[in-house]
Amino acid sequence: MSSSRFTITSRSPQDPKSVVCEVDATSPETVSKFATTAAHVGLSWGADSAAQLRADALVASSIALESASEYLANLMVEEVGKPINEARAELARAVSFARYFAQQPLADAGTVYRALSVASATSFSVRRPAGVAGLITPWNFPVLIPIWKIFPALAYGNGVLWKPSEEATCIALALSKLLSDHLPEGLLSVLPGGADTGRAVLEQADVLSFTGSVEVGHLIIGSAKGRHIPVQAELGGLSATIVMPDADPASAARMLAGGAFGYAGQRCTSTRRIITVGHSKAFIEALVAETRALNIGDPADESVAIGPVINRMAKDRVHDAVRRAKAEGGRVLNQTNPIPDGEGWFTPCFLVDGVDPGHFLAQEEVFGPVCAVMSAKDFPEAVDIANSTRYGLAAAVITSDQGVVAQAIEKLDAGMIRINAPTSGADPHVPFTGVRCSAYGPPELGSGVQDFYTKLRTITTHPPLACA
Ligand code: NAD
């Protein structure tokens, strides 16, 4: 991908000479114009009396999304190099998330409170749409993450300005077109562009939801706070999985190879640190074998587990990280997998041991197929290592010991704790969140997002005053 002041060029990571799309970046003036329209159209869309209309339109949009799934999955393969099986799975989940939020216009909109002092007084709360929701999204889940922001924002009555990642511009244009066909004109606007367009969205939004890196997130959070608007940010991760001595080596290794290297380690919740309690030779050997067996190649091929990383910068970052780790005592455990010839941004997977928990590989998100393997003498030490970074998105433990499970739930400091499961995963009705630098503001997903996308009002009514 490259962007000048006016043009975004999105390229295929497996074939960087191939331009997937080229469009003008949205200027701040245009963002401002779309914001005015979204606010205006949002007035009737967000009215209490339009709840059924909103539900109907969102159901129609979710049906359109389902019908276009195969088309969007293929576009995802082409534009962001996601292996076709994963792309299809992302679309299936996006449809289920859309269906869940399509019902939310009919959810309870407030609370009735007991009268305390005046028996005949009634107090209640109502929730009104926040106004215009600004949504800024990354490239790695180019359909699912936009859907899990756009649908609740619309369901609770807002207009939407959506700034997608430059790397996923073509998917964003296709997705927004198929949703917009079922919505009032001007309610949802997709605004291709880079940082300038993102900043302009932030300037116009009444509420801002961001997913992306910690570094950009900090800027966004600071600006949103400066404008006194609610902000929600889901950011980077360095998720750890603790493997207890009672874990079955073969099944733990299979799950972790997929969790660390699936989609070339480009999920925010990819497992980036594996911490074994004690040294399990059988587990390490199985992990190396499972990693070696992952097939790297053309993401359009159904037998391929791992495609390319997103761009040259990402590939360089992975190789620099491995070089640096090796220079500082790290050791690549696996014989690296063969990668396709040609100019695509393919890289092997790297399992690296011999780095201490303070090493940058165990402290910073490389966002590619690199995973640090460490060991701890006991479970408390493993928890200390897992908690010892600035990130706190997901953490997992593999064990059948219920005492360890209870301790993990209490002691692991992460937004999402998973037992005997990969660190990745999300459900529409379960809050998705992180702690420390991995998130800011209220969680995404679940019915609680209504609070984020709406303003609360409390109302107290008394009986009419008697004539004097
Ligand atoms: P990024 O932070 O580079 O970009 C995210 C979005 O912000 C893009 O749309 C980008 O154009 C926009 N942007 C960049 N600079 C901006 C600015 N100054 N003002 C406004 N907008 C700006 O992230 P990315 O490379 O697209 O995605 C990868 C990152 O996202 C990783 O760190 C990953 O962990 C994180 N991520 C987190 C989650 C989560 O739910 N926690 C999910 C997916 C990805």
TrEMBL record:
Pfam family, any one: Aldedh
Superkingdom of the source species: Bacteria
Keyword Oxidoreductase tagged: yes
Keyword terms: Oxidoreductase
Tagged with keyword Oxidoreductase: yes
Domain Aldehyde dehydrogenase intervals: 7-459
Annotated PANTHER family: ALDEHYDE DEHYDROGENASE-RELATED (PTHR11699)
Protein known as: Aldehyde dehydrogenase
